[in-house]
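RECORD TYPE: protein structure
NAME: Glycolipid-binding family protein
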Amino acid sequence: MSFAAPPASAAWSHEGARSGFEVAYFEPGAEGYHLRGCTTAVEHDVPWIVGYDIAVDRTWTTRRAVVTARWATGTRTTVLEADGEGHWWVDGAEAGDLDGCLDVDLESSAMTNTLPVHRLALPPGRRASAPAAYVRAEDLTVERLEQDYEHLVDNGRRQRYDYSARAFEFTCTLVYDESGLVLSYPGIAARTA
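PREDICTED:
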């Protein structure tokens, strides 16, 4: 299972859980991709901005993520680094609770659901666990998020995956384009460009 190269940019309108908008840029490089973007949103009557710069290797395994948030109360930056083998450091400190995670997942971003789908390259009918280093939008705390993806039968150029995150008792069917970018994330976001 392989995807086409991502476009130079993409955008999503966030809906349901929050009101907001996300824009991401995809820059190919010798080592993989740099994924840079920003989400501006209002959630529970609190406006926030979360920007990100994520480096993934050629297998789409996360190697580094710099996440910066701004709220009315101030700004914070969190730096996640990974060795590609499932070991992580958060702001320079070893994060053993993230052992085995190969992806970063930003609560603020629909784009980060692209990472495990590319990395896993599941054929239709296959399911896999993809625990992630999950970064909260409200304070940039990082925790482990257990999640699963199951590639359903393809529908033309669109691909569908059943997604679940047990910690949130959340399940849905994600729809992706031929580049492996989310088109529809029910209750969270829809692709606009």
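COMMENT: Residues 114-120 form the longest helix (7 residues).
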